[in-house]
Amino acid sequence: MSRLEGNGASRFIQLMQQHGHNKDIDIIVGTITAAPPDIKLRLPGDNFDLDKDDVIVADKVAQELAEGDAVIVLIANNEQQYYIIDKAVTY
C-alpha cells in the first residue's frame, strides 16, 4: 500500500479508492442536536437521538461541534457503531 498524501479529505478518498465499496460501512450526514460534552446526534429518518454513549467523535472536531451542525457519520457493525468524522459544510 502506498503512502497517503494530502489533507484529511484527500486521504479519505484515497482509502476509498484503494479498498472499494464496503457494504458493512455506511456514510451519511447527521445533525448535532446537543453539543459536547453531552452530545446528541440525529440521523436522517430517525425520530430519536443517539447520545454520547452511542457515538465516537473525531478529536479534531469534538470541540467545534454546536447544536444544528451537520456532520459526516460512518456507521459500522450493523448500525452498532457510529463515528462522527467531520463537519459537513455546503456552499
Brief descriptors of the model:
about 90 residues, alpha+beta, OB fold (Dihydrolipoamide Acetyltransferase, E2P), six-stranded mixed sheet, about 35% strand, globular
Summarize the helices and strands and which ones pair or pack.
Blueprint: H1 8-19, E1 26-34, E2 40-42, E3 50-51, E4 55-57, H2 59-62, E5 70-76, E6 81-87
Question: In summary, what is this structure?
Answer:
The chain contains two helices and six strands. It is of the alpha+beta class and 91 residues long.
Describe this structure in words.
The protein is an alpha+beta fold and 91 residues long. It is built from two helices and six strands, in the order αββββαββ. It starts with 7 loop residues before the first helix and ends with a strand. The mean pLDDT is 85.
At the first level of CATH, the class is Mainly Beta
- Quick one: how many beta strands? 6
Unreliable residue runs = none
What is the approximate shape?
Answer: globular
What fold name stands as the CATH topology? Answer: OB fold (Dihydrolipoamide Acetyltransferase, E2P)
Instruction: Let me know the largest β-sheet.
Output: 6 strands, mixed
Bin the strand percentage. Answer: 25-35%
Which sequence of strands runs across the widest sheet?
3-2-1-5-6-4
Structural class: alpha+beta
CATH homologous superfamily annotation: Nucleic acid-binding proteins
Organism: Neobacillus mesonae
Protein name: DUF2577 domain-containing protein
